[in-house]
Design brief:
OB fold (Dihydrolipoamide Acetyltransferase, E2P); about 350 residues; 2 domains; binds magnesium ion; six-stranded mixed β-sheet; five-stranded antiparallel β-sheet; alpha+beta; 8 helices; binds adenosine-5'-triphosphate
C-alpha cells in the first residue's frame, strides 16, 4: 500500500499548457478516479504519475518520496491501458510472465504469481491461448492480470473498460472493485464516464481543462458540487439549470425569479446571495414534485415521456427554452404536450453565480 501525492504538477507541450498545477493527496489504499471530459488532461496526468511522460514542473511523490526522475520501471507501479497492449504472438501465460522474466525473477516465483493471478481473475482455462482467441472481456482480464503479477504498490488504469460493451463493462466494474477489495492497493482510475466514477471511487477528482475542479467522496460531490460544471458533469440525468435573478433577500429567505416571472424562495441561511445577483438554479430530475400546472413554482411543457414501468422520465422545457427533465418513481399518467407544474425540493436545490459558476451554498 502506498500514498500518492501531486504537488503543483504541470505539463506543457511546447508553448501549450495542458495541466496547470495540480495538487492532490491520495491516501494509501484509496480507489481514486480521475473523471472529466475528453481532452481535460486525465491521461497526461496518469502518464506523468506512471513515468511515461515527463513532468514539466512540480513533484510526484510515492510514499513520500519524489519520483520525478525515477524511471517508469522503478516506480513500483503497474498500468492497465484501454487498448490492452497484449503481445499477439504470445500465449496468455507468456503475456503474464513476460515482464517478470525481464526482471530475472526465479521461474518458480513467476509461475506461482501467474497461477495466483489467473485464479483470481478466472482466466486459468485460457493460459494456453493467444490474445486473438479471447473475447474483449477476457483480454481485459489478461491485461489486468499482467499488472497484478507485478505486485505493484499502485495500480493505474486508463479507461480500461471503454472497449467493452455495456453489459460487460458493468461486470468488469464489479471485478475491478473486487480486486481492489481483495488486494487493498492504492488505485488510480481514469474515465470520462461519471457513472463509473460514482460507482467505483472512494474519492473522485473532477478535472476540467487541466485543473481539478473538485476532489472528494462521490456522494459529497453529488450533493455539494462546488460549481455549475461539476454539478452538470456528475449525476445522471444531468442536473437541470434555470436562469434566474435574486428578486429580494429578506427574513423569509432569498427570493429568486426566473426570466418568465416564476419565483421560488430559498433559505437565506444556506445561500450567500446578493441583491439582483444573476444566477442559475440547479435541481436534479429526482428532486422535483409534479402538480397541476397552476399550482407549481415553474410550468413545464412535456415534450417526451419515457414510461419504464418502475419509473418515469418526463422531458421538456421550462420557461423560454431550457431543457428540463423530471424523474418520478412508478407510473405517471402524463402525456406529451401536457403542461405540468413542478415544485423544487428546497433542501436539494443549488444556486450558482451566473458568471463564475461558483456555488452560492455557504
Ligand atoms: N504529445 C502531445 N502533444 C501536444 N498536445 C498533446 C499531446 N498529448 C496530449 N496533448 C493535449 O493535451 C490535452 C490533454 O490530453 P489527454 O490525453 O491527457 O486528455 P484526456 O483527458 O485523457 O482525454 P480523453 O478522455 O479523450 O482520453 C489535450 O488537449 C491534448 O490534445
Ligand atoms: Mg485519455
Amino acid at each position: 500500500m502506498a500514498t500518492l501525492e501531486l504537488k503543483n504538477v504541470k505539463k506543457s507541450y511546447g508553448k501549450v499548457d495542458v495541466v496547470h498545477g495540480i495538487d492532490l493527496q491520495i491516501d494509501s489504499g484509496d480507489f481514486c478516479v480521475f473523471v472529466g471530459p475528453s481532452g481535460c488532461g486525465k491521461s497526461t496526468l496518469l502518464r506523468m504519475i506512471a513515468g511515461l511522460e515527463s513532468i514539466t514542473d512540480g513533484e510526484v511523490l510515492i510514499e513520500g518520496d519524489v519520483v520525478n526522475h525515477i524511471t517508469a520501471a522503478k516506480r513500483g507501479l503497474a498500468m492497465v491501458f484501454q487498448s490492452y497492449a497484449l503481445y499477439p504472438h504470445m500465449t496468455v501465460r507468456s503475456n503474464l510472465s513476460f515482464g517478470l522474466e525481464n526482471l530475472n525473477m526465479p521461474k518458480a516465483e513467476i509461475n506461482s504469481r501467474v497461477d495466483e493471478a489467473a485464479r483470481m481473475l478466472q482466466i486459468e482455462e485460457l493460459l494456453k491461448r493467444r490474445p486473438g482467441q479471447l473475447s474483449g472481456g477476457q483480454r481485459q482480464r489478461v491485461a489486468i492480470g499482467r499488472a497484478v503479477v507485478r505486485e505493484p504498490k499502485i495500480f493505474l488504469f486508463d479507461e480500461p473498460l471503454s472497449n467493452l460493451d455495456a453489459e460487460l463493462r458493468v461486470a468488469m466494474r464489479g471485478e475491478i472493485g473486487n480486486l481492489h477489495h481483495r488486494l487493498g492497493n492504492t488505485m488510480v482510475y481514469v474515465t470520462h464516464d461519471q457513472v463509473e466514477a460514482m460507482t467505483m471511487a472512494d474519492k473522485i477528482a473532477v478535472l476540467r481543462a487541466g485543473r481539478i475542479e473538485q476532489y472528494g467522496k462521490p456522494l459529497d460531490i453529488y450533493n455539494n458540487p462546488v460549481n455549475k460544471f461539476v454539478a452538470g458533469f456528475i449525476g445522471s440525468p444531468r442536473m437541470n439549470f434555470l436562469d434566474a435573478q435574486v428578486a429580494s433577500i429578506g427574513s423569509t429567505g432569498v427570493e429568486v425569479s426566473s426570466a418568465d416571472g416564476a419565483t421560488v424562495t430559498l433559505d437565506a441561511a444556506v445561500f450567500d446571495a446578493s441583491a439582483n445577483q444573476e444566477l442559475s438554479i440547479g435541481v436534479r430530475a429526482n428532486h422535483l414534485q409534479v402538480v397541476d400546472s397552476d399550482k407549481g413554482e415553474f410550468v413545464m411543457e412535456v415534450e417526451t415521456t419515457e414510461q419504464l414501468g418502475g419509473e418515469t422520465y418526463l422531458y421538456g422545457t421550462v420557461g423560454q427554452s431550457e431543457a428540463f427533465t423530471v424523474h418520478l418513481p412508478g407510473q405517471v399518467k402524463i402525456e406529451r404536450g401536457e403542461k405540468i407544474g413542478v415544485i423544487l425540493s428546497k433542501s436539494e436545490t443549488q444556486l450558482f453565480d451566473k458568471l463564475s459558476g461558483q456555488s452560492l451554498r455557504r
